[in-house]
Amino acid sequence: MSGRNKSVIIILSFFLVLTIVLTTTIGSTDISIDITAKILLSKFLLIEKTWTDGQEAIINDIRFPRVLLGALVGAALGTAGCAMQGLLKNPMADPYIIGISSGAAVGACLAFVLLLPVQIISFVFALIAIFIVYNISKTEGKVPVDTLLLAGIAVGSFLAAVTSLIIYTAGVPHQIIFWLMGGLWTADWEKVKISFVMIIFGIIMLNRQAWNLNVMLLGEDQATYLGINVEHVKRYVLLFAVLITAAAVSVSGIIGFVGLIIPHIMRILVGPDHRILLPSSALAGAIFMVMADAMGRTVMKPVELPVGIITALFGVPFFIYLLRKRRKNIYA
Fold first, then answer.
1. Centroid of chain to Cα 319
2. H-state helical runs in the chain
3. CA–CA separation, 131 vs 99, rounded Å?
4. Residue 223 Cα to chain centre, angstroms
5. Nearest Cα to 285, choosing from 1, 19, 3?
């Protein structure tokens, strides 16, 4: 990694830490930045206690796990979006475009109706959805990207109809509506621990494919000529992009546009090289998600907006911008 790329990662990492500390101070109870920082640092350093037990409980048990979960979800969606855009060679690709969110939504609805664990069932159904999409797209041992996109749209639309049917006929409680809007209300340390393992592992594995994704931007024929097993790379990238997206969706609900706008912005800033684009998209996605959740908690205080609404308010205008600029090849 070049010196410039290292500088980008260091700067983004600094801003992520700063954002986490600042947003952890936000809440109904006023806790200053210095007290928040001391409470967080006390986990690692011996610091004289100048805060109350109540302040410590609020930071450690409520705010900090929520902020960390938001960072993990943002990193997962940013990385998955970057990988999908590189794999499909389409700047308007999104990790949800192949039916992951629709599968997770069906699973969540069933979980609410049958009183099953939402995180586990939504995760399983997200994996089932991509399994169906992949096998529909498979032709003579290969998976054309155009067919994959069309199959994802078709299966996603069908599963969205199934979700609507379940809500209409089963009287799904209002919790599912909030889940479908996307939010981090239910964050706790258990969800942070489970998500951390899957998301970090998936991000690491996707970063190992950075060079192959660079070569595949030249075209599948050229990549094959240069010795890349194109179908293996597709399966590999799809598997881990789905893994981290499903892990994110299962704990946060449907949060759109992060995987669309963050990789595109970072591609403009750092270029198309996935060796820097993937890690920078993860860090920027984490920053964006943490800030969006903080905005959702404050913009209409005391009412809390679902973070999915905040990301959509930013994402839709940017998506329109992408449509208008589509004729320009940003992968050149």
1. 17
2. 3-24, 33-41, 53-57, 64-88, 100-114, 118-137, 145-170, 174-181, 189-207, 210-216, 220-225, 230-252, 258-270, 274-298, 307-324
3. 10
4. 28
5. 19
Q: What is the DSSP letter of 228?
A: -
Close Cβ partners of 274 (under 8 Å, ≥ 6 residues apart): 82, 83, 86, 209, 210, 211, 213, 214
Q: What are phi and psi of 142, to 5 degrees?
A: -120, 160
Of 139, 118, 94, 102, residue with least CA distance to 241 = 94
Cβ(75)–Cβ(288) below 8 Å: no
Neighbours of 300 (CB within 10 A): 10
Q: How far apart are CA 147 and CA 11, in angstroms?
A: 39
Give the span between the Cα atoms of 41 and 36, in whole angstroms: 9
- Return the domain boundaries, the chain: 3-324
Nearest alpha-carbon partner for 204 in 109, 278, 289? 278
Q: So what's the architecture of 3-324 in CATH?
A: Orthogonal Bundle (1.10)
User: pLDDT in tens for each of the 332 residues of the chain?
Assistant: 567 778 899 999 999 999 999 999 988 788 889 999 889 888 888 787 888 888 999 999 999 999 999 999 999 999 999 999 998 887 777 888 888 889 988 998 898 888 888 888 988 998 899 899 999 988 877 888 888 888 999 999 999 999 989 888 877 667 788 888 888 988 999 999 989 999 999 999 999 999 999 998 888 888 888 888 988 998 899 889 989 998 999 899 889 889 989 998 899 889 899 999 999 999 999 999 999 999 998 888 778 889 999 998 988 887 777 667 655 544 44
Helix, coil or strand: residue 76:
helix
